[in-house]
Amino acid sequence: MAGVRDKSDFTQGSIPQNIVRMAIPMTAAVLINALYSIVDRIYIGHIPEAGAFALTGIGLAFPIITIITAFQNLFGNGGAPLFAMASGKGDRDLAAKYLANAAFMLVSVGVLLTVVAYAVKKDVLWVIGASGATFSYANDYLDIYLAGTVLVMISVGLNPYINAQGYAGTGMVTVMIGAVINIVLDPIFIFVLGMGVRGAAIATIIAQFVSAMWVLAFLFGKRAPVKLTFKGFRPDFRIIWKIARLGVTDFCFALTNSAVSMICNARLQLLGGDAWVGSMTVISSLREIFLTVLHGIQGASKPIISYNYGAKRFDRTKSAINWMFLFLFSYFILMFVLLMAFPGFFAGIFTDDPEVYECCIISIRVFFCLHFFMAFQSSGQSTFTALGMARHALFFSLFRKAILVIPLTFILPNLFGLGVLGVFAAEPVSDILGGLSCFTTMKIATRKRLLPGADVPEL
Asked: Is the Cβ–Cβ distance between 187 and 213 less than 8 Å?
C-alpha cells in the first residue's frame, strides 16, 4: 500500500525514534525471557526450610546454563547483523542463506551440548563450589533443564532474525508466551505438586517448547520478509564461518561470564561459605534483570547501525551509535542509584534467609558501585559487532572478563584485608578499566570506516 513504511527499512525515519520503537518491545522481550530463570529463583528461594540451599544450588547450575547461552549468541547474535546488512543492500537471497545456516547450526550444536552437558555436569558442579547441602538441588534442576537445550537454541537463537526484520513486537511475543506459561506453572509444580527444583525445570521446558514453536511458525510463515527455508539446503561453511567469526564476541562474553561465575562461586565457597555463594546468586539474578534494558537498547540499535552501514548511510550510522550510548548511559545511572539506595529491597525479592540477606546488603553495593561504566563497554562492543569488526569485538569481550576479572578475583581478596569482599570488588575495577578502553578504541577505529565515500566490506 502506498505511503506505508517498510518496517525493515531503517534508512527511513528518526534514528532515536527507530531505536525507541524497537527497544521497547525488545526490552520487554528480554525482560520476559529473563523471567524464565529469575522466577524460578524467586520461588525456589522461598521454599520453606530449604530455600537458602536450593537458591544456592540453582546459582551453581547457572554457569552451566550460561554456556548454552554462549552458543545461542554465536549463531544468533553473530548472524543477525550480517542478515541485516544483506537486507540493507537489498540482497534477500544472501540474507536467507544466513538465516538457514544459522538455524542449522543452532539445532546441531544444541544436540551436541545436550549430550556433553549430561556427561560432565556432576563433576563440574563439585569443582565450582557445590557442597553436600547444595549439590542435589543443582543436579536435580539440570537433570531436567538440559533436556530442553535444543528448544532454547531455537527460541532464543532465532529470535534476533525476527527482530532484524523490524518485527520487534513479534519477537517480544516469542518470549512473552513462554514466560507467562512458566510463571503460571512454576508455583503449581514447585509448591502444589511438591516437586521443588525439579518442578521449576519442568515448567521451564514446557515454556521453551511453546516459544520455539512460535518462532518457527513466524519464520516459516507468510509474514516474514525473509523466510526460513531449507529447500535445496546444504550447509555453507563459508557462511557459517562468517556468522561464527562475528558471533564469537557475544559467545566469548557469555562463556567468560560462565567462567567468572564458576571461579567466583568456588572462591566464595572457600573464603566465606554457602551464604556468600547464595548472595552471588542474588547478584547474578539482579544483574540479569537490570541488564534487560541494556540488551533491549543493544538489540534495537545494532540492526539499525548494520542496516544503515550496509546502505552506506554513514551519517545515520554515526547518529545511531551516539544515541545508543546516550540511552545506555542514562539507564545505567538510574540503575546505579536504585541499587545503592535500596539493596535490601532487591535482596528480599530472592531470599528470606537472614544470613544470605545480610551478605547481600554488603555485596550488592560493592559489586555494582561502578557499574555505570558498562555503558562505555556495551556501546563500544555493540558498535564493533554491528559493523562487522569481529577482532575488535572479540578482544574487548575477553579483556574485561578473562584478562581483568578472573585474575582480580584471586588478587583482591589478599589486598587491604578485603577477604571475601575482594571477589565482589573485581567487578567494579574491571568495569572502569574495560569500559573506557573499549569505548576509546571504538571511537578511533570506526572513524575511517564512517567517512563519506568509504567502502563497505563484502559480507
From this structure: no
CA distance 296 to 289: 12
What's the confidence (pLDDT) of residue 36?
A: 62
Running DSSP on this structure, what letter comes out for residue 373?
G
The answer to whether the CB of 118 falls within 8 A of the CB of 245 is: no
Nearest residue to 311 (alpha-carbon basis) of 6, 92, 89, 459: 89
Whether the Cβ atoms of residue 325 and residue 378 lie closer than 8 Å to each other = no
Scanning the structure block, which residue is given the C-alpha cell 575495577? Answer: 429
Count the alpha carbons within 13 Å of 28 in the hemisphere toward its beta carbon: 16
CA 271, CA 264: separation in Å to the nearest integer? Answer: 10
**What span, in angstroms and rounded, lies between the C-alpha atoms of 282 and 259?**
18
pTM, to two decimals:
0.69
The rounded distance, in Å, linking the Cα atoms of 256 and 248 is: 12
Which distant-in-sequence residues (6+ apart) come within 8 Å of 375 by Cβ? 325, 328, 329, 331, 332, 435
pLDDT, averaged per 10 consecutive residues of the chain (459 residues), comes to 52 80 75 68 70 74 82 86 82 90 94 94 84 84 91 90 82 80 87 84 90 93 87 90 84 80 86 87 84 83 84 86 93 93 90 87 94 92 85 84 90 92 94 94 89 69
